Hints:
four-stranded parallel beta sheet, single chain, Cys_rich_dom, (Fe-S)-binding protein, oxidoreductase activity, alpha/beta
Amino acid sequence: MKIGLFIPCYVDQFYPKVGIATYELLQKLGCDVHFPMGQTCCGQPMANSGYEHLTKGCNANFIANFAGFDYIVCPSGSCVLHVKDHLHDEKLEVVASEMRKKVFELTEFITDILKIDHIDGNFPYKVGMHQSCHGQRGLKLSQMTELNAPFFSKPEQLLHNIKGLDLVSLSRKDECCGFGGTFCVSEEAVSVKMGQDRIKDHENHNVDYITGGDMSCLMHLEGILKRQNSRVKTIHIAEILNTMA
């Protein structure tokens, strides 16, 4: 199984350890992992701001870098959702259409494609799981609490088997953190208040770490935590799962 590792630009620039953890984890799970060196931003920030017509270069570059892989795996639900919904190319639309079906968020790939529900890692801390909006509502990685339906969570399913990890049950487990990509810039005050509320829920449950599948959300929460001098830290789920031998 030949995997193209799709690393978001902000992860590459600010949180390279998340990319490394994803690479190492996929290798441990038996995948043949490749990192295309020419990859750049997928174009999501422009599309979110109403400039999707300017993402043609990003789309063409994505296709050039990731064509030929069996699957494309990314540790970011928001970037995956953008590619699934918006990857197009006037000259290579058939190729783009097929690639959209091959792009998967990390925990989605592990549970749905590799069919793995148990990872023998070790992380002896109390952890709160932040379900990002794009992952939950766009990729259906977990059930939405407003629906009268059985709860499921692909990320939590993997975390439950990590030795020593105490996964808390939050009061409002699928509430938005307020990041929202460019929303945090255009509506800074609202974004920060939403982030503070999200953090308060975790702090009320005395967590040591907040984890999640989107480093963008965790980056937003991390900034607020540091400004509040909180003892709570953030960690991407890939870094926890990569504690497996």
